[in-house]
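Subject: complex prediction, re-run

Hi both,

The earlier run crashed halfway through, so I resubmitted it with identical inputs.
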Amino acid sequence: MEHELGFALSNAWLVPALPLISFVVVGLFIRPYSAKWAGIVATLAVMGSAVMAYAIAWQYFHLYHGEDHPAIVPWTIEWLRYQPGMSVVMGTLIDPISVLLMVVVTTVSALVHLYSNGYMKGDPGFGRFFTYLSLFTFSMLGLVLAPNIVQMYVFWELVGVSSFLLIGFYYQKPSAVAASKKAFIVTRFADLGFLIGVLTLGYYGYLSFPQLSPSIEPGLAGLSTSGLQPFDFAYINSPEFLAYFAPMQVAFFGFSLLTMAMVLVFMGAAGKSAMFPLHIWLPDAMEGPTPVSALIHAATMVVAGVYLVARLFPAFAASETALLLVMVVGTFTSLFAAVIGTTQDDIKRVLAFSTLSQLGYMMLALGVSTMAHPLGYTASMFHLFTHAFFKALLFLAAGAVIHAVHSNSIWDMGGLAKKMPITHLCFLTATLAIAGIPPLAGFFSKDEILAAALMNHHYVVFGVAMLVAGLTAFYMFRIYFVTFWGPHRGHGAEHAHEAPVLMWLPLAILAVLSAVAGFVPMSHYIHIGAPLEHEGINLAIAVPASLMAVLGIGVAFFLYAGMKATARAERLATALGVIYRTIKNKFYIDEVYLFVTHKIIFNYISRPIAWFDRHVVDGGVDLSGWMTRTTGYVLSLGQTGQVQVYGLWYTAGALFVLLIFWAALG
Amino acid sequence: MNALTQALANQTPGLNHWLVLSTVLFSIGLYGLLTRRNAVGILMAVEVMLNSAALNFVVFNYFVTPGAFDGQIMAIFVIAVAAAEVVVGMAIFVAMFRLRHSVDVNRIDTLKH
Amino acid sequence: MGICSWLIAIPFITMLFVVFTPADKWQRIRWISAVGCGIHLVVTAVMVYKYWQLAAPDLASMKTATLTKLYLVEQVPWFPSLGIQYFLGVDGISVAMIILTSIIIFTGSLASWYVEIRTKEFYALLLLLVSGVFGVFLSFDLFLFFMMYELAVLPMYLLIGIWGTGPKEYAAMKLTLMLLVGSAFVLVGMLALYWASPVHTFDLQVLAQQTFSNEFQAWVFPMIFIGFGVLGALYPLHTWSPDGHSSAPTAVSMLHAGVLMKLGGYGALRIAVYLLPEGAKMWGLFFMFLTTINIVYGAFGAVMQKDLKYFTAYSSVSHCGFVLFGVATLNLMAFKGAVIQMFSHGIMTGLFFGLIGMVYGRTHTRIIPDMGGLGKVMPWLATCFYIAGLASLGLPGLAGFVAETHVFLGGFFGNEWTATWMTRTLTILATGSIVVTAVYVLRGLGKVFQGPITDPHFEHLTDATLPERLSTGILVATLLFVGVAPWFFIDLIEGSVMPLVNRLHETGAIVAMTK
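This time it finished cleanly. Structure:
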């Protein structure tokens, strides 16, 4: 069936291009002259791409209404030709999940831009901030639209670097510098795995391409101008390629090559999505300005890992081990982070651990699904969608609070409900949404994840997810009660006042979205593999899950609502002793890393190498110089400076030679 | 007198006689060159060696290619070069003497340092 | 006189102008050099355009060619009895290198705008050296090649020994001696080629058509490769590089790390691999092994350095390792990667050393722990430094990424003469260096430019001046151009790299690296 593409669809490249143009124009030409205009131009550009994204979404789902949603690639350009037959083709891939992410990214980004105009007002780096934000938005959209794994990697790195720049935005603050380095290096380490995975997939893709592509290509509805490429997701995910690749074995702990490749790719995903044990950078990343935390470290960039796994889901599903790993890591991270989240004092850090936990949720949703029972895939994307809104809202609201109180610690806040009514209301909406209280957005997506886990008989995962739901409600209401209820604890809290309109307007929009996003019929738009058998709300899951949330809220109320309750919490903490301290110190994971990097790598690898180079290798060179000089010196002892002695030697030598000649010839 | 000397004495001087003479002259010169301490003495020794070479030229010219004059011309060249050499050498020694108040070659050893 | 000769002559003529300008007119000397290099840049652009016109139609036919096709050739007999000619020409690889050299010398002459001791001699030697470098990249006669090579190496001694800093005499001596040892190896190899070929000639194209016995190739290949490897900082013959680079003055470091080190990779590819394909197959794995050490070792070595120049020099050892790694991998992607890496590393290191010179000129220290928070007072330099750093850790969008992924993919694909699992293991080890690179780049730059200002007198330092901005701006733009639009560069070199690969295959056509 031929489809006529509308303007928005065929020019999808405009979506990332607008922020790119804004990055160049603002960075080079506007920033040095006018901070105000830098903000305005960048915001308008992102709003432009948001409008484009909505148009694309509307056209796409309108075009393929009531049928399968094929992946189309309306625009490509050959970017990098490794060798004939193997090129990286930059393009724009439009399929349900890329449209979903595009909408999320542009919406949140546009709102964060708007908010930042108020939040960053008066900051000397105002123009720089918007330059970086534009760069990030461009990179993130490029990542979302990537039709092949190399483009994904390219933009993956670019979002990494924009995240680095934005975390280290306050570059004179040593903690921010350290956090930005940490974020970059940890994700870089993960990307190493990703890169090797890409190399493996690229190699076998290239090898099998001539043989397999003729049978794959006709089956694709893609309107790509460049044809299929070995790096394309469409190729890697195709059953033909997976059937070719899966049986390949290597002598490496008995894993198949496919498993290895997918595990390596997952390593990249885990780094970006801050899965345990690569999660350590995300809490520290809160050193960045709050809008950045909202945009990058809650709503968009950190979900790139989930997106990558979803993107390669058929390939992951072809390897049970890899998918199991996704599930285990996701489940563990969601529990682990939720536990830590209950003890932190910095409002942004609590939110960061909450993000970790929710990302774990999304991962586990992917991990529990299979091609035959793919509900988790839809659920994961659904949760990604709803989470983006309520988590961005939480961060932005927290930013408004921090802006008013001038402190990050929840114990400096308190009683803000009256001082900042709009912020309070928005924060409450988001908190209820994340806790999974019906009928807010979080309820629906969590319900679907739980249903997916139960349906595929992963009872342990289901149990943990239930527990995490309760914990989530608890720690979120903990910070809610401490921040907005009770007495004013600090000087800042007493003088707090409502945020300016530029800041509360995005909050209000996000609050509306967080409330209603759950009603989007996601399973109608996004599915993979077999058709979904689960429709609507399963009360057997929804009721206990909601009760867990209410229980969590109740405990939080009991321990943290008001002065008396807080005293109870302190007693509990003292009673728990070592356990509490371990949790509070994030299970000392950072210390372990610090030990490994500084003590072992620096001291036992780098320093010896530096020493070895200076003393042994270079010593060898100097030794040869020394030997030359010494030999010269020894020989110079025979040099008396007496020409007559030389003459004597010469004569003796000449006579000797003569004698030899005489003996030989005569 | 042994037989060789007898034989030589009895003949009119031939090629061998002259070669023996020039070898003796050359050896005396070489000995002087290697043993004299006085620079002027060394110069004289060099002269003796040069003259022995010049003598060889003349002798070979006379006995080997009687019709030609190449050897004699070479001898004159040698004499001219020797003269020039003496001039240069003596000039150096005079300069050296002024500098060091000595022309003892053992004490001229700056090449070593 | 063709355009190739002009490319060599222009720096030389500029040098003559400099020589005949009175030494006390040092400002005029500066301008003469800058204008000369500027003209050179323009002539280079013309040459690239001409090359493009001529070479573009031939690209398809190069897929099966085994002999590099030369353009803009000038061929004049020089010593016909010895088979020596004045033979200049360009192919894609040399065009790339010439663009690199032109850019580096132009920006280098701007970056050393503030050399005030013996300005005249400095520029004269610098320009002489540059003539030699161009000669190397343009000549296709081994004798001429070697002569130009020596012309490029020797002025370095004086440049470092006179205008350097620190233990400059030691560094200059070490550098010159090690490079001369390398060139002795090369010379022996070249003479062996001359005598072993049935036609006694130094003509590279004629030699390329001869077949040399395997026994011969087995010993001549490592000879030439190691000889050039010294210049390309092959482990363990790289130790001249940290000392030499850190002692050299700014423009010389730029030129040396940026261009001269590339002569190593260029020579290894152009002479060793091109003329001795069988030898390359025999020794490929060995050199891959050594260069993997280069890559990883250089990166770890850089982590602990305290001096910015040592830091960059070790990073150069690591990055030049990629060049030789690519050359030793023996397939199309790796060769292309090696050439792109030569270019991108040249620009990147040029930028690094230029910037270090500029920062040093202000702070009078290069010790990393003594600096801090400079980003606030010199945002331009900090930005450029970060761009160079990001390029060196292989950020997509900058030139380093294009080069490194080529090399990685090439290494991963391996070749038909070596066990793939070995090349793959080595490649994965080499890939690991991207993490270490991130560590040292971010640690080093973070300390220097970020955080609070450590020394009160840094508060009053100024940002880059106009010549400095021009010079760094050009380099940054080049890095971005290659990174964002790599297809230009790939089109430029691909046709000339293909014959090198084809020579390795007896069939004479590019064969996919299958195993």
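The mean pLDDT of chain B is 86.

- K.
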